[in-house]
Write a structure and sequence with these properties.
Elements (H helix, E strand, L loop, with lengths): L11 H18 L13 E6 L5 H12 L3 E6 L11 H9 L5 E6 L4 H6 L6 E6 L5 H15 L6 E5 L6 H12 L3 E5 L7 H7 L2 E3 L2 H7 L2 E4 L15 H8 L3 H5 L6 E3 L12 H4 L6 H20 L4
Helix pairs in contact: 1-12, 2-12, 5-6, 5-12
The structure holds phosphoric acid mono(formamide)ester.
GO molecular function, one term: amino acid binding
GO biological process, one term: 'de novo' UMP biosynthetic process
Organism: Chitinophaga parva
Amino acid sequence: VKHLLGIRDLTRQDIEQIFQTADEFKAVLQRPIKKVPTLRDTTIVNVFFENSTRTRISFELAEKRLGADVINFSASGSSVSKGETLIDTVHNILSMKVDMVVMRHSASGAPHFLSRHIDVPIVNAGDGINEHPTQALLDAFSIREKLGGVEGKKIAICGDIMHSRVALSNIYALKKLGAEVTVVGPPTLIPKHLAEALGVNVTYNMREALEWADVANVLRIQLERQNMPLFSSLREYNLAYGVTRELLDSLKKEVVIMHPGPINRGVELDSAVADGNESIILQQVENGVAIRMAVLYLLSGRKG
Ligand code: CP
């Protein structure tokens, strides 16, 4: 594999190799000296055309822990505002002898387009509503860590499925790893044609999904991707589809709670749940660094 553009392109063996490599890097990250010289003579550029907190910091930290030189590029404040194209922007950066590109873009397919024009490995850090592969890898890795494996586990992906690259990448990853997947949310955010195309179970009833699930991966409502409101109000969304303390306490078993962040507290997830005992949200963030170290290392083609 030359690039990581999406989970769709990976095999189960690829994902398991990433996890085994991430296990090793996670052990490194527990040591007093968290840095290894693995990519010491490599320069990586993080090209972000869309905002980010977790993914951007996590990639930068992963690169620095591997000893790489790191350049951070944000579209805002760059010559993109003067009309420079994506290809010109990246060609100019690469001419300064950069070895790998990590890219986030609001357009679905932007990293795939770029991969046809440049010769260095590209890691997709989220493209529009298409994929967010490293998020899905860190999510599945966190489930494996918490429950001892992914195969046969029941995972509910909750909320705004239609606009979520996290949902799509999670569905690909979890199915490849042998999990059972159900998507749950309002019909406006899981239209029937999408539900059929995804090849997963669908319910529009949150209680039913949580009663079934071992894990609930709760997604952010992406208001910025909705041209018109797809539910009547955030309050009503919370009442019907919010994962609340009351709802979780009324179940007969514990459900592991995940969220990719950023959280809309009080909308899709109540604070008492986000910060509760069932939540592994911050472990997901922690695992993101080891997963991204593994991805960058494997794509670099280095051995030993
Ligand atoms: N999970 C995630 O992609 O968060 P950011 O948008 O903050 O990177």
